[in-house]
Write a structure and sequence with these properties.
about 375 residues; Urease, subunit C, domain 1; TIM Barrel; 16 helices; about 25% strand; Amidohydro-rel; Metal-dep_hydrolase_composite; Amidohydrolase family protein; MTA/SAH_deaminase
Amino acid sequence: MYGTEQVISGTIIAGPELEPIEGYICVNKGIITEVGEERTYSSNIIAPCFVNAHTHLGDSVFKDPPLGKISGFRNQRDLDSLVKPPDGLKHKILRETSYKTLIECMRSSLLDMIETGTCAFADFREGGVLGVAALNKALEGLKLYSMVLGRPAEPELPPQAVLDEVRRILLRCNGLGMSGTNDLDLELLEEIATCTRHSKKLFAVHAGEKDRSDIEKALSLEPDLLIHLTNATKRDLESVADAGIPIVVCPRSNFITGAGMAPIAEMLEAGIKVAAGTDNVMLNSVNMFSEMEFMSKIFSIEDRQVFKICTLNGSFIMGSDSTGSIKKGNKANVMILNGSSNNLTGIKNPISGITRRARPDDILSVLHS
């Protein structure tokens, strides 16, 4: 440490290509001022922090749903019984949860993100204006870059009332994150999308999770971001690629709900920018190490690409290219892993080692800027 400058040595997962180099990084006032190569004899691994590109943090109030016994969604593949508004299990629980409890539970998940190496996240925030306010309150004082995407609390109200609420929501967050085009009148959704664009905010929507019946309608809204596309066909992906729309996949969540496996390799082959998220906190922790390991071992994707999906690609989607990679001039959002931990001792390729087997307890420290 020299004045306000911090020097960290080890194997660096460096630059946009995520190339492992032995050397050091210098950090001054939260900015990477130098990345140098030299022999260090350090077992530390210095890696970019994760970007969790799709969460539902309100679900933090109920982290152990009755899989199969009560909700029935796991056995019957009935995703609607879990998450479809307004009567899905999660929405019933959210309505019964106090504002104070909601904030406390979301803050616990945000702290868990920080402890497990995540520096940025995008949340699809239910509950209208109050839901957005709760997450903003939970974020107070935390060094996390957030993209909060709200949605109307009562979409069944008359269209003008819904649009009035949408305008109030857009004053308080980064954009709109809608549940799906089959859940709301398409004409109203078109007006919501137009309203969002007029506010110069981001419009995102779930599509192709339960089946592909809502994909074409979602594309007709010209969204900035699509979530899931689990049941997308090759033609669907070609349309997404032609429109230049990024996709966020949620492999663990889709596996648990029986929605299937997103065609991630095909998405990448089509030239689509793909990021990843942990989705509903009631089903999965916000631990991106688990998401990465699952993706690496289930899908036919190279480990470097998996790591990129969970870091740099998420940063791109959130409009923060200076967050995702370790290079001079970027923000210092990095995690230092113990390469000589009992878990990581013996790895030969640091990218594969982190992607396939690293855990939060391998983290020595995390820098957030």
